[in-house]
Amino acid sequence: MTLDDMIKRHGSWLEAGIDEGPVISSRIRLARNIDKYSFPGWASEEENLSVWKQTSDLFNTLESDFISWGMNNTPDLDKEILFERHLISQEMAQQDDSCGVFVTADECLSIMVNEEDHIRIQSLQPGLNLQDAWKAANDIDDKLEASLTYAFSSKLGYLTSCPSNVGTGMRASVMLHLPALVLMEEMDPVINGISKIGLAVRGMWGEGTEAAGNMFQVSNQITLGRSEDEIIAHLEQIVLELIEHENNARTRLMNEKSLMVEDHVSRAFGTLSHARLISSGESLNLLSTLRMGLDLGLVSKFSRRELDMLFISIQPAHLQKLEDKVLEPDDRDVVRAEMLRNYMKNATQNGSLT
Predict the structure, then answer these.
(1) Cα 33 to Cα 38, 56, 86, 113, distances in angstroms
(2) Cys-Cys with 33: which of 125, 151, 244, 347 at CB 3.0–4.6 Å?
(3) Residue 117 within any structural domain of the chain
(4) In 10 A of CB 76, how many CB atoms?
(5) Which residues pair with 201 in a beta bridge?
(6) List of residues 6+ apart from 249 with CB closer than 8 A
(7) pLDDT tens readout for residues 8-58
(8) Rounded to two decimals, what is the model's pTM?
(9) How far apart are CA 165 and CA 236, in angstroms?
(10) How many CB atoms lie within 10 A of CB 25?
(11) Is 80 exceeded by the pLDDT of residue 1?
(12) Could you tell me if 264 and 244 lie in one domain?
């Protein structure tokens, strides 16, 4: 399967059809390093080449089918697509030599090699499904560890480039859509409260990114002194509380400001249906509003999963890949607007605002 094929379909973590309101997806990430080798940031080119060769040879022997991209021969546009699809980090998208990623055809597993750590395993699942994500990550981790000797301390656990990952080396995170908490101006207190209990809140594409489209990633900060099961259980508890807070905020919005919400959703629908120029940032915010309208029963004949996939499809690299040419920002705004108009037209031929 090529990257073009992957773009025409979407990762199973988005296509599974699980509709859980505020929850988009769950992710488990494991950081691992190979013993006797310097960590990537301090390693020589020879060491990084050796790690890349070892892991490449190993993946060729695994029963699971993985698609691989070495960053040294991957075009910049394709790197950006891999980043937009949450398969590599922004840091890896900017790298060239002796690093790359292995991805399963369904995009639920991606393993970066020689990013910040020698190996970073990422498992994605739709909805609130941390347990299945953990099982998949743990299974591939066991297969790799059967052939590789990890850097490990009996006192500290897995050794990682960043001290904050030492211990389990695990980051568990859940992507949530929280527009009502934002509209009710209650998101900042929530973020402050979460940070005091060992969790972090980041934007749609992880660390260093803003919460575009009212999408937030909530993840653990503590990896040392807690087991994987404890980390997952704690995160699940907080996510369930966040879902309750968001649903309560939606109820209050409809009770106290229903006309404002209906107008907000109608304007989003109108702009997406008729705009001739639209940026990715504006698109994300409008799609977020439409998604909330769908959850609240204000619009019909839309698929939540299709809306979620549009969050990725409208991104700059995806648009250029679909058009098969480099587009300047203004030209991307034209193509994006046309894509959204066509989706709104097709989705609403048999339905409308309710």
Answers:
(1) 9, 15, 21, 10
(2) 151
(3) yes
(4) 12
(5) 218
(6) 180, 181, 183, 184, 186
(7) 665 555 654 455 679 999 999 999 999 999 999 899 999 999 999 999 999
(8) 0.90
(9) 20
(10) 25
(11) no
(12) no
**Cβ atoms of 158 and 31 closer than 8 Å:** yes
Q: Which amino acid is at 59?
A: F
The verdict on 125 and 187 lying in the same domain is yes
DSSP track, 82-98: HHHTTSS-HHHHT--SS
Query: Does residue 82 sit in the same domain as residue 62?
Result: yes
Residues in the chain: 354
The CA–CA distances, whole Å, from 34 to 31, 51, 208 equal 11, 8, 27
Residue 332: which domain range? Answer: 257-347
Q: Is 244 a domain residue? A: yes
Which of 233, 250, 267 terminates a domain? The answer is 250
Q: How many helices (H) and strands (E) does the chain have?
A: 14, 10
Rounded alpha-carbon distances, angstroms, from residue 13 to 8, 199, 309: 15, 23, 10
221 and 88 assigned to the same domain: yes
Same domain, 168 and 286: no
Among 234, 250, 266, the domain boundary falls at 250
Measure the CA–CA gap between 331 and 326, rounded to whole angstroms.
Answer: 9
User: Looking at the 3D structure of the chain, how many domains does it have?
Assistant: 2
DSSP string, 108-120: SEEEEESSSSSEE
Does 330 fall in a domain? yes
Residue 323 CB contacts under 8 Å (≥ 6 apart), including other chains: 335
